[in-house]
Amino acid sequence: MSRKPVSACRLTAGQTHKLARCGYETVGDLEYVTVAELSKELEIGEEEAAQILRQIKDDSSSGVESSTVFSGLRREEQLHSLSTLTRDFDELLGGGIEPRKLTEFCGAPGAGKTQLAMQLSVNCQLPHAFGGLAGQVVYIDTEGSFMADRFKEIAEHTRSELQPRASRRRKKQAALPSVEEMLEGVHVFRVHNYIEQIAVLNALPAFQIDHPQVKLVVIDSIAFHFRADFHDMGLRTRLLNGAAQQLLSLATQHNIVVLITNQMTTTIKDGTATLIPALGETWAHACTTRVVLAFDGDTRSASLFKSPSLPEGSIHYSVTAGGVRSVRGAAGPSSQTPSSSSTSSTAATAAAAATTAKRRHEHS
Amino acid sequence: MALRALLGDDVHPATKAAFSKAGLTDLTEILCRSVPEIVAQTGLKASQVADVVCRLSLHAAPKPSTAAHLLTTATHDPISWGDAGLDRVGPIRTGHLIDLCGESSAGKTQLALQLCLAVQQPPECGGISARAVFINTEARFPMSRWHQLAKHCAQRYPSLASIAVSDNVFTNRINTADEFWMFVHEALPSLLSSSGVRLVVIDSIAALFRADFALDESAARAHVLFDIGRQLKQLAHAHKTAIVCINQVSAHVPEEVLPSFAPSRVIPALGLAWSSCINARYFVRRITSREASVQAACDVERQLSCALAPHLPEERASFFVDNDGCHSMEQAGIT
């Protein structure tokens, strides 16, 4: 909703005055007002009322719509995806997690949702050269699973794995943030009930103004409070849709990556029990991309279930002391190029990774 | 708190009046409605409504803290299992809801009793110098076993020599799920805020919910479990307390729902609903008696493993139980 003052629109002084007298001060005030209501309230003809509303609509939207090709191009350039630093994962997601969209990771307890969320909170703070977004993180913790010391551990490991590449570059923009900086760069909201959860989402735009460096919003998990003692399913659907709308508008306005984790629930279909993501059908439409994490024998697997642009597929990954890692041999993130530049030459990087691994082996 | 007081003097009295006139006097009522809805109900302007909603949200939202700040607060203090070898699996943490599950006579209660001792140790010895509550739902509190442990504990934990360990453990008995619901919503909050308790053991959560609900009431059970899980988590966080719920196991179900680390053919009881509520899960398993090579004192080998936790990779440690508690094989020098 626009807080642009009515006086900034191209209206006559008389019209502005009449509007002000009736309490219409911002463009947003007129959002839900019909022509008939306005003409009655301002005591003017319907034609003039319609003209006022049209003028305000034009003026308020032109600020958003008009952009030159150059600025559009620059914006595109700035739209980096957030890399998972795990090649398989990035390939599955088409080069990382896209900004301006809602990405959901679902999984049974212990599948690695929180680990992935913490790893991505580290990655987000890395410079663009390493697949990060050089930005800070808002972490909405509904389950009490965010562990600062585990986050520190992941940050330390990730940093030391990337350090060799960072020192090779010597470029200023490739300098890795220190672990202390990364710890300072995560803002954790510990949420205890669904009212607090709604309140945090309402308050996020204001927080974003104070902290424009925020480039990733994590909600771990969206489901928890909406499953506990929630009997009014209609209200639940409405609140969740509202939350999705708010997150989406925040994401598109500020080019933010939004990461949502979700729990799983059991459903009985044709007499057999199967696991499906919680929160039902309506919520399933709210997310742009949905990835299901699961246990597949001894390893963990991630499957892409819903995406507007990518084929369905699945990959394996593991959670180590250092965080979320690839299971493909010794090729850690240090021997990978960030996904944004490597998706076209997968075979080449794979071969390079193999030789690095071999060389390492010979050294030791 | 009254809405008027929440909004303060910056909001025009007429706006506040319009809200009360429309019956919107409660924070929950307002935050559950969309702005256009409230506009329709109150007849106020959208910007006025948005302003009120924004103010209320800022008031109701928890304050953020950075990860760096969280590191300095004692939100997630570790509590030792009372044995260095067992701690390799990962100590439990305050602020967490922990599930300790295993078959009957696997050693769950023994580990929990040992936690009640270990939590009383000072931080330099792995404890947090706090008291414990032990809730029984199945049998009576194992008094004679506790006395045995308390008698030996000064030798094993020198830091407890000057502490009257039995005075620091409260016990309570709860018979039904309803009683338990009342307990976690009423008695437990006041107990935690006044008595220096930072460890709560519930032995066992499964007994309450497996008995009180019929098979076809699983949806109702899931609701109650979610509510209790949420309440326990909130208490754990607010009072920096570790809440350990002892859980039973069920026979195998075909789906590979849980980590492969779960011992084969049994899965934790209470299903996915409860698993979604907990922060960490430890498995205790009884491994069949070893051959003659093992000393008489440790004829039964048991194993503690971490099945899920946000803070540690999966690990396992073998242990045995004797007169003075649970000992890891590693610490006892048995391989």
Outline the structure in words:
The complex is a heterodimer of chains A (364) and B (335). Chain A is of the alpha/beta class. Chain A has 2 domains: 60 residues, Orthogonal Bundle (DNA polymerase, domain 1); 255 residues, Rossmann fold, CATH 3.40.50. Chain A has 14 helices and 11 strands. In chain A, the strands form 2 sheets. In chain A, strands 3-2-4-5-1-8-9-10-11 form a 9-stranded mixed sheet. In chain A, α2 crosses α3 and α9 runs parallel beside α11. Helices cover 39% and strands 21% of the residues of chain B. Chain B has 14 helices and 14 strands. In chain B, α4 packs across α5 and α10 runs parallel beside α12. Chain B is elongated, with a radius of gyration of 24 Å. Chain B starts with a helix and ends with a helix. The model of chain B has no long low-confidence stretch (mean pLDDT 85). The chains are: A alpha/beta (364), B alpha/beta (335). At the A-B interface, α6, α7, α8, β3 and α9 of A face α3, α4, α5, β1 and α6 of B. β3 of chain A pairs antiparallel with β1 of chain B, so a sheet runs across the interface.
Topology, element by element:
The complex is a heterodimer of chains A (364) and B (335).
Chain A: H1 13-21, H2 35-42, H3 46-65, H4 69-78, H5 87-92, E1 102-107, H6 113-123, E2 136-141, H7 148-169, H8 179-184, E3 186-190, H9 194-210, E4 214-220, H10 224-227, H11 233-254, E5 257-262, E6 264-269, E7 272-277, H12 280-286, E8 289-296, E9 299-306, E10 313-320, E11 323-326, H13 339-342, H14 346-363
Parallel strand pairs in A: 1-5, 1-8, 2-3, 2-4, 4-5
Antiparallel strand pairs in A: 6-7, 8-9, 9-10, 10-11
Helix pairs in contact in A: 2-3, 6-7, 9-11
Chain B: H1 3-7, H2 13-21, H3 27-31, H4 35-42, H5 46-60, E1 65-66, H6 67-72, E2 78-79, H7 84-87, E3 92-93, E4 97-102, H8 108-118, E5 131-136, H9 143-156, E6 169-173, H10 177-194, E7 197-203, H11 205-211, H12 218-238, E8 242-247, E9 249-251, E10 266-268, H13 271-275, E11 280-287, E12 301-308, E13 316-322, E14 325-328, H14 329-332
Parallel strand pairs in B: 4-8, 4-11, 5-6, 5-7, 7-8
Antiparallel strand pairs in B: 2-3, 9-10, 11-12, 12-13, 13-14
Region (Disordered) (chain A): 326-364
Organism (chain A): Salpingoeca rosetta (strain ATCC 50818 / BSB-021)
Main location (chain A): nucleus
